[in-house]
Amino acid sequence: MNDEKSFTKGGWAFLPGLAFGLAVFAGFAACRSAGVGVVRESLEIRAMTFNVRLGSANDGSDNWENRRDMVFDVLRRYKPDVVGLQEPLRFQLDQIRRAVPEYGELGVGREAGGTEGEYSPILYRRSRFTPAESGTFWFSDTPETAGSSNWGNAYIRICTWARFVEKKTGGAFYVFNVHLDNVSQASREKSVILLVKRILGRSRPDPVVVTGDFNVAENNSAVRYLTAGDALEAADVDLRVNPIPMVDTFRALHGDARGTGTFHEFKGNSDGEKIDYIFTSPEISVAESEILRDSRGGRYPSDHFPVSARLYLPPSAGRW
């Protein structure tokens, strides 16, 4: 986590300003039902969230050198358009970029905004998308201060975000990629409030995809704040209840499915907690969403299973 009915997929092994933002999302919610459904003229994107486990960890036979090729193969096999990674160090990202050079990379190390420490980067398919805006902020009282952490975090925590424009159509969308704290519930709650504030404050009213390792299960208040309307303590009264309820792409299609754990400590079990998510703003349609349980010879690419989703953005997104 540091750093049976099962709707999952495997590869090598297959197992059965704020006021403006509020107004924009109110309009989206009025014309959206349940986050499911496909509009033929929509822009299709494939998203993935993938905690690849930091490469400096002492994981014995599951160390980075023994599983990195499987990480590369997950990206090659599923061919996501955008990927939110969690935990990679700079040397891991360099190896990933060499193995799958079709992807560009956005993000910085969390320690000081340079190359030190874990990243929460976004990979994107360079042949298809251009990053029009991007940045990283820190989950703290001073989010623009690199390395800041004052919410009781066990580790420094960040969000890397970007606005992508499809080269062919001009269709645009945002990705926010997060890795929340694994110890402090107060930090997680403040982090999701800041995340929503940043989403509402984006420069264009384009659809939003949120990827990440939230380090908590679906019934936790930090997740339910995003998806279910649970209230949290917030200095800004307009943010005590999330004004833009997000869609959990996996649950939108698979409802009450069991065996949906994503954190498995290299054991491959599916009965743990689902702590890795792809959320979307309400106007995005969800066509597919799967937990990917690829393995090879009893070994797994990471201690987390990646999650994928095939999404459709409305024709009005971006400059259409």
Biggest beta sheet attributes: 7 strands, mixed
Within the CATH hierarchy, at the fold level, what is the topology? Deoxyribonuclease I, Chain A
Distance between the termini: 40 Å
Pick out the low-confidence regions: 2-8, 11-34
CATH class: Alpha Beta
Going by CATH, the architecture would be: 4-Layer Sandwich
Number of helices: 6
Helix content: 10-25%
SS strand fraction: 15-25%
Kindly state the number of beta strands: 13
Q: State the CATH superfamily name.
A: Endonuclease/exonuclease/phosphatase
Taken together, the total number of domains comes to 1
Mean pLDDT level = 91
Give me the secondary-structure category.
Answer: alpha+beta
Account of the 3D structure:
About 20% of the residues lie in helices and about 25% in strands. Helix 4 runs parallel beside helix 5. The chain is globular. It is an alpha+beta fold. Helix 2 links the parallel strand 2 and strand 3. The protein contains 6 helices and 13 strands. It has one domain: Endonuclease/exonuclease/phosphatase (Deoxyribonuclease I, Chain A). The N terminus is likely disordered. The chain has a 7-stranded mixed beta sheet with strand order 1-12-13-2-3-5-4. A 6-stranded mixed beta sheet has the order 6-7-8-9-11-10. The longest helix is centred in the middle third of the chain and has 16 residues.
Output the keywords.
about 325 residues, alpha+beta, Deoxyribonuclease I, Chain A, 7-stranded mixed β-sheet, 6-stranded mixed β-sheet, 13 strands, about 25% strand, globular, disordered N terminus
